[in-house]
Amino acid sequence: MQSDYHKLNKAFENKVRLGIMSILMVEDQASFSELKDSLKLTDGNLASHIKALEKLGYISVIKSFIERKPNTNYSVSKIGIKAFSTHIDALEAILKSIK
């Protein structure tokens, strides 16, 4: 069990980052607005957490234009999928060991 605690990723201890990653693991992509609405966050709060995940290489930013309006979408990178899966597996192992 001790080794399972070691596998927890500090980046996902924050509930906002955990929420962002959870959404992106289910959806191929999500827009800034979709994440903001789903997680009930302010622009600044969401932007700071997205920036942190992007800096770690866990998410990718896809910028485009829709009818001349900028549109930003996010997706999980391969590194992010691996990191998040390891984190969730460790959580599940810890919970199973408690039962």
Offer a concise description of the structure:
The chain has helices at 2-6, 15-26, 32-39, 43-55, 78-98, and strands at 30-31, 59-66, 69-76.
Give the topology, please.
Blueprint: H1 2-6, H2 15-26, E1 30-31, H3 32-39, H4 43-55, E2 59-66, E3 69-76, H5 78-98
Antiparallel strand pairs: 1-3, 2-3
The number of strands is: 3
- What is the element string, with H for helices and E for strands? HHEHHEEH
Biggest beta sheet attributes: 3 strands, antiparallel
Give the spatial strand order of the biggest sheet: 1-3-2
Mean pLDDT reading: 93
What Rg is obtained from the alpha carbons, in whole angstroms? 15 Å
Report the principal-axis shape.
Answer: elongated
Low-confidence stretches: none
Named CATH topology = Arc Repressor Mutant, subunit A
Defining traits:
3-stranded antiparallel β-sheet; Arc Repressor Mutant, subunit A; alpha+beta; 99 residues
Would you kindly provide a written description of the structure presented here, covering whatever features stand out?
With 99 residues, the chain is an alpha+beta fold. The chain has a single domain (2-98), classed as Winged helix-like DNA-binding domain superfamily/Winged helix DNA-binding domain (Arc Repressor Mutant, subunit A, Orthogonal Bundle), CATH 1.10.10. 60% of the residues lie in helices and 18% in strands. It has five helices and three strands, in the order ααβααββα. Strands 1-3-2 form a three-stranded antiparallel β-sheet. A hairpin with a 2-residue loop joins strand 2 and strand 3 (69-76).
